[in-house]
């Protein structure tokens, strides 16, 4: 379709954001330049909700280069209304609600702001009935869970161990795996055990127990590491020729024919559309806490310190 720039930003205008003023700076409330007019294959969104995750602390010079150009908003996921469409975009129109995980960020600034520029190929139409907070919470954790299970390649009846199964990503991976007929054991706090059994876990092991690995029946076909520092112990529980996938960048060297790899999430609109439909249909449950944009620094601090209580925080 032809580009619709009628709702595009005006040169020199600023917008409210939660982000950083420079490399390695603290997260604060600030005014940042509005995104540029969408180029070929791009969309401009008016953000409705944006996810906050532990990965966001890596965006500002700490390990994940997403093309941030401070002063800039953080955030690599969210949902919003399309307000301008760049050339060569045919699947979307002004007014569409879309959700996306975007990295790198084409506008140099992220979703924790009033507007964000994204690549159209990363976006999925938000299904009718999907609450903005639920939509904004889904992209990174949902895609990470989905892609990690694809990498593990497990089949019905096989056994999977997830460390930190009570976390945002681990709980989604648990549900997806259980729906596929995979037998899932998770490590989590004792207080989360009932909830996780309700999501499909066959067994829940208290990670506070220093000998948690000794209390698990080994021989797992696959292990998903979602808790830092658990990969080495978990490797001993994988059967010969099994697989280990780490989300915490600490996959140990393989042994006994075990394939051991680190996984880094990538944008995928088709997978995201599938996940969003599963949430609408009640097949995937998320534990979401919505906070206003001006509480972005507080939300960032809580998530970075591991104090979100198993909830996915979104800024609205």
TrEMBL record:
Residues 1-20 are annotated as: Disordered. SUPFAM superfamilies: GroES-like, NAD(P)-binding Rossmann-fold domains. Residues 22-314 form the Enoyl reductase (ER) domain. InterPro entries: ADH-like_N, ER, GroES-like_sf, Lipid_raft_assoc_Zn_ADH, NAD(P)-bd_dom_sf. PANTHER family: PROTEIN AST1-RELATED. This is NADP-dependent oxidoreductase. It comes from Streptomyces mirabilis.
